[in-house]
């Protein structure tokens, strides 16, 4: 979906994922996470020429807060976020990142299953 929107609008895709850092992380662990993100995106894009940039967000904020802040500071026009079914107990214990982003994002949010 993101590639289709980017092609239609002549836009670049900003791909962000986050890690909640509870204690200090080793630099090599961050490098490995960045490399895995880049490889995963290349595998999905499979030679597609759509311009993109990957971002690994690492700090002590919740994932939802990190994504909302990223959207605010990078003037993101649209967020596309994946959602999955979870039990009510899971939602109660862990919250919903997607719900937080939907309710707090500074731009439209599209959810995909």
List keywords for this structure.
Rossmann fold, 113 residues, 4 strands, 5 helices, two-stranded parallel sheet, 47% helix
* N-to-C SSE string, H for helix and E for strand: HEHEHEHHE
Question: In angstroms, what is the radius of gyration?
Answer: 15 Å
The share of residues in extended strands comes to 15-25%
Write down how many β-strands occur, each being a DSSP E stretch of 2 or more residues: 4
Provide a count of the helices.
5
Classified by CATH, the class is: Alpha Beta
SSE order and pairing:
Elements: H1 2-9, E1 13-20, H2 27-45, E2 52-59, H3 63-73, E3 79-82, H4 88-94, H5 97-104, E4 109-112
Parallel strand pairs: 1-2, 3-4
Helix pairs in contact: 3-5
Q: What would you say about this model in short?
A:
With 113 residues, the protein is an alpha/beta fold. It has helices spanning 2-9, 27-45, 63-73, 88-94, 97-104; strands spanning 13-20, 52-59, 79-82, 109-112.
């Amino acid at each position: 979906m993101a590639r289709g929107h980017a092609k239609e609008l002549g836009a670049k895709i900003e791909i962000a994922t986050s890690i909640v850092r509870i204690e200090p992380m080793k630099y090599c662990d961050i490098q490995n996470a960045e490399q895995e993100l880049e490889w995963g995106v290349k595998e999905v894009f499979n030679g597609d020429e759509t311009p993109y940039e990957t971002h690994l967000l690492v700090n002590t904020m919740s994932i939802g807060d990190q994504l909302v802040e990223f959207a605010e500071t990078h003037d993101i026009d649209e967020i596309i976020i994946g959602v999955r079914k979870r039990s009510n107990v899971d939602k109660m214990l862990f919250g919903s990142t997607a719900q937080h982003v939907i309710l707090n994002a500074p731009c439209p949010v599209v959810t995909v299953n």
